[in-house]
């Protein structure tokens, strides 16, 4: 965890029990690929995937709220054990409030990373609102933290390690890989 992470982010990260992520522009670089046969393709960063696994090992749940619907996303979420996965919801704050009715968790125990305007209401409401380096300027002005890395290029891993470090869990988890 570098000196570039603001103290307020560390304080908020200590409480996090759930990290919710947008997909396009956060778990991916935001580009959409379409093949001639109409198939959609997405590129996910393998280091972000391990970051999600590290969070889960540290007892932090990881979920997704996204405006688009993608079978590829569901496959990746299944591979990583991500739950909940809420797709096709542009009204992300409403989707989050619905999730909270089924979970024993408070808003200040939630971190959310989103890169653009559909994510703004959630970024403003949760305990730790985050946007990646390539997030919109509006999101950057409203988020508690803008990561050094861009979406699809390790931003999720950066968040994972920061949360785990703030909670005093990172070194123990990393030691299990040595």
Give the SSE layout:
Elements (H helix, E strand, L loop, with lengths): L6 H7 L4 E4 L11 E2 L5 E2 L4 H12 L3 E5 L5 H10 L4 E2 L5 H9 L9 E4 L6 H6 L2 E4 L5 H6 L2 E2 L8 H12 L3 H6 L3
Parallel strand pairs: 1-4, 1-6, 4-5, 6-7, 7-8
Antiparallel strand pairs: 2-3
Please give a structural write-up.
With 178 residues, the chain is of the alpha/beta class. The protein has a single domain (7-175), classed as HAD superfamily/HAD-like (Rossmann fold, 3-Layer(aba) Sandwich), CATH 3.40.50.1000. It contains 8 helices and 8 strands. It has helices spanning 7-13, 46-57, 71-80, 92-100, 120-125, 137-142, 155-166, 170-175, and strands at 18-21, 33-34, 40-41, 61-65, 85-86, 110-113, 128-131, 145-146. Strands 5-4-1-6-7-8 form a 6-stranded parallel β-sheet. It has a two-stranded antiparallel sheet with strand order 2-3. Strand 2 (33-34) and strand 3 (40-41) form a beta hairpin. Helix 2 packs parallel to helix 7. The model has no long low-confidence stretch (mean pLDDT 95).
Record keyword descriptors for this entry:
8 helices, globular, 14% strand, two-stranded antiparallel sheet, 178 residues, alpha/beta, Rossmann fold, 6-stranded parallel sheet, single chain
